What we know:
This protein is of the alpha+beta class. Helix content is 33%, strand content 23%.
Amino acid sequence: MNKVKKHWQDTLALMKDIVNQLDFKQRVLFLFLSVLLVIGSIGTLIFLSHTTTVQVPSRGGSFSEGIVGTPRFINPLFATSDPDKDLVEIIYAGLMTRSGSEFIPELTHSYVVSEDGLSYTFILRDDLVFHDNKPLTAYDIDFTIKLVQNSATKSPLRADWLDVTSTVINEKTIQLSLSRPYGGFLALTTLGIIPQHIFKSISPDQIIFSEYNINAIGSGPYKIQRVSKDSIGIPKEIILKSSPTYTLGRPYLRKIIFTFFSTINDAQKDLTKRNIDGLYNVPSSTITDFEHRGFTLHSSPLPHIFALFFNQSNNTIFLDHDVLQAIDMVIPKSAIVKRIFNGYGHILCNPTPLYMTGSQACSEAYTNYTTAEKISRATALLRNAGWKRNTEGILAKDGRTLEFSLSLPNNPELKETAAMIATSLSDIGITTQQQIFEPGNFDQDVIRPRSYQSLLFGQIYEHDTDIFAFWHSSGKNDPGFNIGLYANSNADTILEKIINEDDDTKRNDAHDSLLPIFSQTIPAVFLYSPDALYVTDSRIYNINIQGIVSPHHRFSSIHTWYRYTERIWKPFIKKQKLY
Length: 579
């Protein structure tokens, strides 16, 4: 070491002597060339670094999400609220998981579907464990499914699984059998698996009261580290840490923090102050403000449709096809999307959400007419059908007047939509009266008893086969989902083919043949499909919400999100498959 030190000292002394022998101009030239040498060396090193290394995500950092509401059931069997579903998506894993609009294996290594589409055999990955390091086997999957099917459990998912028979082949293999083919079955297999060793000692009717509905134990990318509660025991913050045993790879972000707010305004304030990194469902009117403050807006069309549904039994004017056609013609769908959603949405003219099998854009004949032209055409249509204005300015015919009540939940967007509908209909002599209900009572008091004349509401499509549940005549009565009370024998035949067909091409053809029937019969007046809006800190990378069905699906790839990066030599990059 002393020899090396002496060598450098001698070298520096020699260079000093050389410089001292130079005149002023020579010294300036020497300094200039020395600087160029240093810059060139640094540039060469940077070039070599970038050509021989790759920038990759690095583990570390955290992400804080703001959630409106508080969790009650962090359990796949009972999760119905947004806070519950968000946490279940991160804490639990299923046989399959979503990757955009596709499904990929999660707990599953591989699976086989029988030729008749009635049997799905799943082979599990090796060494699966829950967050408490206890093994996860086919018996846990069988246990979870049978609990969902048990009426004593009172799981809201029970109806989805009644047609499924679960059979354990061995610890790593489970077979799920159906009584008829169902093209959307893989969506069901994203069900989070709960640990049998924890819940088997609890009777099904008592599971809903278990402490593990908050202190949840799953096998997803993140596990609960701490639950902070207020003075009356309500969770105010939940901190999760990454799971090193997650099947698709240990997440990059070490911690996820969920902070709960009572209102979206409170959450927005914390986002503005950067107390949180992400917030879903930010009002579209404030999106521009966040985009200029170092945040990123993620948006994606949602397979949600909002429409005006009619109950012909409670008001016979809806039996008149000309009336339905006039209503459909005059409602300003584009103006609704622009005013209420700031353009983050799409108008609809049929019951299938955009970008889903069977969807079609509105015809040019509809989109090209001006508002004045639509009013003129609707007015002429009703006049030719015998409707005339009475002394009060309302259209009437044969002792009937064109007026009806419009039921909707107490939601700002729906209330503004209803007001715009009322204004547009009054222009052609149709009167509406709004009936607004609190969301908590809406299903029980209005939808289930079919206690409405018309209904402003939305439907969510998990899969293109869901169109069966919403429009087949078998679902007209409670607890069915056919809230438009639509019944058409030709449509029923095609809907039955759609739900029973597991061949994508044939199912697509069936969807195409269904749309002309809907166009001719007007089962409802379809309005719009909103976009998902998610604002996050711009320093969080690899967030992709394209193709999500429900808000909680934004977390389906959270294990790939990252905050930091590092450079690694190319020979050391491991080429790994996600599944």
